[in-house]
Amino acid sequence: MQLYLKTRMSFREVAVLLASRVLPDSELEERDGLNMGGGDYYSLKSGGTEVILVSNDADHAEVFVPTREAFRYYCFVHRGPEDTLARMLESLPSGLDGELADDAYP
Predict the structure, then answer these.
(1) DSSP letter assigned to residue 9
(2) Would you place residue 34 in the very low, low, confident or very high pLDDT band (cuts 50, 70, 90)?
(3) Domain count for the chain
(4) Short-list 21, 17, 45, 20, CA closest to 31
(5) Does residue 24 form part of some domain?
(6) What DSSP line would sit under 41-96, residue for residue?
(7) Which domain does 41 fall in, by range?
(8) pLDDT tens-digit profile of 64-103?
(9) pLDDT for position 50
(10) Are 78 and 84 in contact (CB under 8 A)?
(11) What's the pLDDT at 59?
């Protein structure tokens, strides 16, 4: 399952907003995505849960979901309970629109 995000914010702004307001007890870490589409991505860790935030564009072909190209970014749970994404969706602030989907991960 993925949480697709539609916004005009930059990748970094979205990551900081998610870490500070949506998952306020999480640690935010920017990572080089050699195994995640060849670009940077963000990891948000809280307890035993890790949520990954990626850019959804053709420049990151390994994680690009063409059927959802209207959404600039998306999150998925790398470790932990899947319902984390539903809780995140419920607490998205203004300027960040989201949609949960069960698309096949690229």
Answers:
(1) S
(2) low
(3) 1
(4) 45
(5) yes
(6) EEEEEETTEEEEEEE-SGGGTTT--GGGTTSSEEEEEEES-THHHHHHHHTPPTT-
(7) 2-101
(8) 899 999 999 999 999 999 899 999 999 999 889 999 998 7
(9) 94
(10) no
(11) 82
- Which pLDDT belongs to residue 82? 86
For residue 85, being part of any structural domain is answered with: yes
Quote the pLDDT of residue 63: 85
Task: Note whether 54 and 74 are within 8 A (CB).
Answer: yes
- The answer as to whether 106 is a domain residue is no
Whether 51 is covered by a domain: the verdict is yes
Average of per-residue pLDDT across 60-67: 85
Structure tokens at 89: 């969706």
- Token pair 């080089």 is found at 32
Q: Provide the edge-to-edge strand list for the sheet that holds 2-6.
A: 27-32, 40-46, 49-55, 73-79, 2-6, 97-101
Within a 13 Å sphere around the CA of 35, how many CA atoms are in the beta-carbon half?
1
